[in-house]
Write a structure and sequence with these properties.
This protein is mainly beta. The relative contact order is 0.05. The strands form 14 sheets. Strands 5-13-12-7-8-9 form a six-stranded mixed beta sheet, with no helix packed on it. It has a five-stranded antiparallel beta sheet with strand order 15-14-17-21-20, with no helix packed on it. The protein has two helices and 59 strands. It holds the Pfam family V-set.
């Protein structure tokens, strides 16, 4: 395989018979010493040809210390390795006859390409490379597919020519095997996947990165972004590599910090890496009620906002009013999770004045329950409300026994925020004005009524005013006791025929109600009591059933009532006279002229002692036909739905139980429906 000695001399342009020389050749396990003579003709060399010849000769084994070229081939396990060779002959006239591929440590070739036969033949050593190997004569490369770590070694290609000495080319095949697994473990030996924690502020974190296998040996480094933070590698065993990262006491800035363990043993592929994110739990940094601390109005709905910042997981917010837990609120968490907002809907009441509204934020993390206290923000509530008033009688006053002429006084109790600026006193809804001469004395929260009369009876109120409104108290009723008096607006004249019973009511005002009534008949100065069986008593009303029998039975009936205060001072007077038909109406006229309605009013005559009714009849003046009639209890009558521009005859009269009064006739008419009137 190598020329070890030669006496060959070459003289350009000569043909020489050279002495014999020896070649040492390896063939299997035997060494052959082959003597032979060579007759060479060496033509003269041009400069370019001389350079090429020197390059070819430099590849001859044994020419000098430059033994055959060595090529380093790196390939990833499982991929394809291409081992280069060179089939270029030293001279143009020469050609390749045989190509042999050897693997170090194996005597037999692993592959051969034989050009001595036609066509050329390929042979492979199936015991070593099976079907994964092939040779491409165009590229002069040996291809080895699906390489494994066992394929790593030195390969050389031996090329035999027809006349030229053998050439050899070496390829150092390195098979790169990535680490089988890269994993990160915590102090407790648990494998960390994507995230570790949660940790608290001040915690020291240790992460151990381990890589198993790999050729060449992997290099483990820890990265924080693009910065290397730890490259101190340990090797626990020939097949186990590790790097332990220690993080300084954690701060809030380390939340979601991502560190990466990288295992690298080649540039052929991207390094294997495992990323770990740091999870942390924090107590809230602050909690604050965002509302301005203004005064609140009772009965008005409000929304209160509370903001808790810095907690992870999100803060648990609760609301309290003094010791009462409130429930009508909702919670919203920001996208980043460290801001929690709570909205409370509450309608403050008067009794909430001075109470403390408190928003409390605490962590939901069990890691922090024992080491942190909840944070709170407190707001003492100032509640504005309409004054609450209550009215009371004077301490020594007995409202159930007030009589005319007594003095009465009331007190007004007021609870208000803000302070009241006005206090008013009301009697039956009307404001009382300070009037000493009238017996009304208003003094701030007191009211004095001097020498009261029955007109002072009724409901009394006190009312206080502030900026929230007017607060009216509960009513307190004053009932002034007084002797009976005759009520006004009673029917004083009653007509009756002889033997006709007339029922005459006597209504009086009194407090308390009268217990007895007395009736007398007076005619020509002679007074006679009416028997009690003719008298009917109904509360404050007494009705006498009176029947005149003769002309002397017409006259005046007198009525008195008596209660616990005393007897009525002046009687109620009723006149009984013989009843008859009503007198005719008079002074009749039309008013409020219209195109479709007639309005007539008259003055009533004497009713004959009985209730009378007024009637209007409307006639056609040409035919005398009755067109309409209407009645009323007062002498004001109207007829509607008439044609415009017509004349009519109206007849007005009154009637009672004794008959009809005299008729009064008058002409009436409706207006014409002209454009001006319509306008």
């Amino acid at each position: 395989r190598r020329l070890v000695y030669s006496t060959e001399k070459r003289l350009p342009g000569t043909m020489l018979l050279l002495p014999s020389h020896w070649f040492i050749t390896y063939c299997g396990r035997c060494i052959l010493l082959v003597p032979f003579l060579r007759l060479l003709f060496i033509p003269p060399l041009q400069d370019a040809e001389a350079d090429d010849s020197q390059q070819i000769l430099s590849r001859y084994p044994g020419q000098d210390d430059l033994i055959s070229p060595h090529v380093a081939v790196w390939v990833l396990s499982g991929s394809t390795a291409i081992l280069p060779c060179n089939l270029t002959a030293p001279t143009k006239e020469d050609s390749v006859k045989l190509v042999l591929w050897y693997k170090r440590g194996i005597l037999k070739p692993v592959y051969s390409y034989d050009l001595r036969s036609n066509p050329p033949s390929h042979w492979k050593n199936v015991l070593q490379v099976d079907s994964r190997v092939s040779f491409n004569e165009r590229t002069a490369a040996l291809t080895l597919q699906r390489v494994s770590y066992e394929d790593q070694d030195q390969y050389f290609c031996r090329v035999d020519f027809s006349t030229s000495p053998t050439l050899s080319y070496y390829a150092n095949l390195t098979v790169v095997v990535p680490p089988r697994r890269v994993a990160v473990y915590t102090d407790l030996g648990a494998e960390a996947r994507d995230e570790v924690g949660p940790f608290l502020e001040g915690s020291i974190v240790r992460l151990r990165c381990q890589a198993t296998g790999g050729s060449p040996s992997p290099v483990l480094t820890w990265w924080d972004g693009s910065n290397v933070i730890d490259q101190d590698q340990e090797q626990d065993s020939p097949d186990l590599f590790a790097n332990t990262l220690t993080l300084d006491p954690l701060t809030r800035a380390d939340l979601h910090r991502t560190v990466t363990c990288t295992a690298k043993n080649t540039n052929l592929t991207a390094p294997q890496q495992t990323k770990i994110s740091i999870d942390m739990h924090f107590p809230p940094l602050s909690v604050r009620i965002l509302n301005s601390r203004d005064s609140l109005s009772a009965g008005e709905p409000y929304t209160f906002m509370c903001l808790a910042v810095g907690a992870r997981p999100p803060a648990l917010i609760t609301w309290h009013l003094n010791d009462t837990v409130l429930s009508h609120y909702n919670v919203k968490v920001s996208d980043k999770g460290n801001v929690t907002r709570s909205e409370l809907r509450m309608t403050p009441a008067i009794q909430d004045e001075g109470k403390v509204l408190k928003c409390t934020a605490e962590t939901e993390s069990p890691l922090l329950h024992s080491s942190t206290k909840p944070l709170s923000d407190k707001w003492p509530l100032d509640i504005y409300y309409v004054p609450h008033t209550a009215i009371y009688p004077g301490r020594s006053l007995n409202l159930s026994n007030i009589e005319e002429g007594d003095d009465v006084y009331f007190e007004c109790s007021i609870k208000a925020n803000p302070k009241v600026y006005k206090i008013s006193w009301l009697h039956q809804g009307q404001e009382l004005i300070h009037n000493v001469l009238g017996g009304v004395i208003v003094s701030n929260q007191s009211l004095v009524l001097q020498k009261v009369t029955r007109q002072a009876s009724g409901n009394y109120y006190c009312m206080a005013s502030n900026f929230e409104g007017d607060g009216k108290s509960n009513p307190i009723q004053l009932k002034v006791k007084y002797a009976p008096v005759c009520r006004g607006n009673q029917m004083l004249y009653h007509g009756a025929a002889r033997y006709e019973q007339v029922n005459i009511p006597c209504v009086i005002d009194a407090y308390p109600m009268p217990s007895t009534f007395r009736w007398t008949f007076n005619n020509s100065g002679e007074s006679v009591d009416i028997p009690q069986d003719h008298i009917e008593l109904q509360g404050s009303r007494s009705t006498v059933h009176y029947t005149p029998m003769t002309e002397l039975d017409y006259g005046t009936l007198l009525c008195w009532g008596t209660n616990e205060v005393g007897r009525q001072k002046g009687p109620c007077i009723f006149h009984v006279f013989p009843a008859g038909r009503p007198d005719p109406v008079h002074n009749c006229s039309i008013y409020n002229l219209s195109v479709s309605q007639i309005n007539v009013r008259c003055v009533a005559g004497f009713d004959g002692g009985l209730t009378q009714t007024f009637i209007l009849e409307l006639y056609d003046p040409h035919t005398g036909l009755l067109l309409s009639n209407t009645t009323n209890t007062v002498p004001t009558l109207e007829v509607a739905g008439l044609e415009p521009g017509n004349s009519y005859t109206a007849v007005v009269y009154s009637t009672n139980n004794k008959g009809r009064g005299e008729m009064v006739s008058l002409p009436v008419y409706t207006l014409k429906d002209v454009a001006e009137k319509r306008t």
